[in-house]
Amino acid sequence: xxxxxxxxxxxxxxxxxxxxxxxxxxxxxxxxxxxxxxxxxxxxxxxxxxxxxxxxxxxxxxxxxx
Length: 66
What we know:
The chain is mainly alpha-helical. It has helices at residues 3-7, 15-29, 40-60. The mean pLDDT is 93.
């Protein structure tokens, strides 16, 4: 998946909409939202997903990096 697909946006999406998409996903997948009783494997998967979301936003969230 590319960064646009991860955030669910297109190349023509405005920066404010990209930010909204990121925060919507962050509220859903942030690692602090999940129980600490989860297995190590599940926690690792959640961390990887959130890391990809964050990297996508860091790359698409500014006009210079797009």
